[in-house]
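Subject: sequence -> structure tokens, single chain

Hey, anyone have a minute? Need the predicted structure for the following. Not urgent.
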Amino acid sequence: MVAEMKRWTIDTRKEARDLSDLLLQDYGQTEAGMQLTFRVAELQAKIGANRDNHAKIAAEAAEGFRAKAMDWFKKQLHFVEAGGAVNFRFGMPFPEDHTEDYDRVLMMLSMCTEAEIELSESQFAQYVMDDWGWKRDFLQSNANYSALAATAME
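Reply:
Had a minute. Here:
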């Protein structure tokens, strides 16, 4: 007997998570990994430190982007003043900033009525180990403008 293969096209991380959740439900499983209990105050301290580091990289990248953009526009102005051809295509990607993701988690923890909460293995990786789904893209896009991001990618 030959099993029928279905093809799936997944366009976003959310769709991938949704599909994963559906597949796990079909087999009566929950999210893979452990569930452990952590002190809210310790989580707040660690996530706050991760947030500060992230915000520092984002700020440095934003400043680096502004400096490179200003150089580009000055060159274009020089070309216009000299009567030359102008490149109207500004191809530098804007740096990413996900500080609001940290702020959301920190706000949730500050409003938590419990002294301890449970985290899954994936939540621990995200919040404590600072291993978010967007982390690689964040560092790659910001490494163009931030020495801190470039160093973090090494």
